[in-house]
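Students often ask why inverse folding is considered easier than folding. One informal answer: many sequences map to the same fold, so there is more than one right answer. In these notes we will look at a single instance of the problem. The structure comes first.
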């Protein structure tokens, strides 16, 4: 069986065999390409694109046919979204205008489990299935051939970027769904859930890392952290912010493969664990509100400048 791949930037790229060793690419100079890397990239891109697309539908909990013109679920009223210590006369409901036709995602919906559990199931399948095992091993070898000894360990630090963005963007004036203390509570709860799930997997499965340095490869904690933060950003800020956070998370997953720290199925499961952990954080938020008696708070950051040349920032938090 012959398989031909064509790319606009590559005049000729011919690959023989479903899992062959790759052939010659003519682009002015001769370079060797391994098509399993292309296949893995397409697979990873498909998973992440599906992740971002489906979480937009399931994470925001769009209820088709059960929402009114103001975006509330059938049977809900504006009073449901007002602080408990006020009346409609002197209070205004929380602003959900930027969540058109969606209900608050703090409520548990079974549809929210579809995507993360699917990713976790696919990744777990890769641990025990022989065919998937051969695929991930060949992918590891091909990436190693391309990489050589040139490692890039930025993923050790960039994994926290989406999480930090979730907390700080609202403080800098970007409109968010929740107050600062609620974002902190959701992030802390999600991180605890993610840590428990990841460590149970690592010390139960005891999968050897691709570089044989340890037996704690499955699932990828770096990937879980990045996707947890990406889902939090998507939920809080939506739009371009959410897609950008998912792009960063995808890059982290790719770097874990590139640096020979994880197998393909490790990062797929890590993405599912991260998204599920973020959902757990939101599901438990109503209970935390009731437990601590929280109400809305406002945060403002203002610049300070005086005639003597002093510059700074002032933060005001109103609970």
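Output (designed amino acids):
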């Amino acid at each position: 069986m012959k398989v031909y791949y064509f790319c606009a930037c590559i005049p000729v790229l011919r690959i023989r065999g479903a899992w062959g060793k790759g052939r010659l690419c003519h682009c002015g100079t001769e370079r060797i390409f391994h098509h399993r890397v292309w296949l893995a990239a397409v697979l990873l891109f498909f998973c992440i694109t599906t992740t971002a697309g489906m979480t937009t539908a399931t994470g925001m909990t769009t209820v088709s046919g059960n929402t009114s013109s103001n975006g509330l679920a059938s049977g809900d009223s504006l009073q449901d979204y007002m602080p408990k210590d006020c009346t409609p006369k002197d209070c205004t409901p929380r602003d959900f205008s930027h969540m058109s036709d969606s209900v608050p995602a703090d409520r548990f919906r079974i549809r929210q489990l579809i995507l993360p559990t699917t990713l976790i199931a696919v990744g777990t399948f890769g641990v025990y299935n022989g065919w998937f095992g051969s695929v991930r091993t060949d992918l590891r070898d091909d990436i190693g051939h391309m990489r050589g000894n040139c490692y890039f360990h930025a993923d050790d630090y960039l994994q926290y970027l989406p999480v930090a963005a979730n907390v700080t963007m609202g403080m800098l004036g970007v409109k968010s769904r929740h107050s600062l203390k609620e974002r902190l509570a959701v992030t802390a709860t999600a991180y605890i859930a993610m840590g428990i799930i990841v460590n149970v997997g690592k010390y139960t499965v005891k999968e050897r890392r691709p570089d044989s340095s340890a037996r704690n490869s499955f699932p990828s904690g770096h990937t879980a952290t990045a996707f947890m933060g990406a889902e939090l950003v998507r939920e809080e800020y939506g739009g371009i912010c959410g897609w950008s956070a998912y792009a960063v998370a995808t890059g982290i997953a790719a770097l874990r493969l590139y640096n020979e720290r994880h197998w393909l199925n490790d990062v797929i499961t890590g993405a599912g664990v991260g998204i599920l952990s973020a959902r757990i954080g939101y599901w438990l938020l109503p209970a935390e509100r009731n437990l601590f008696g929280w109400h809305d708070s406002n945060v403002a950051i203002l610049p300070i400048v005086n005639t003597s040349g002093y510059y700074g920032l002032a933060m005001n938090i109103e609970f």
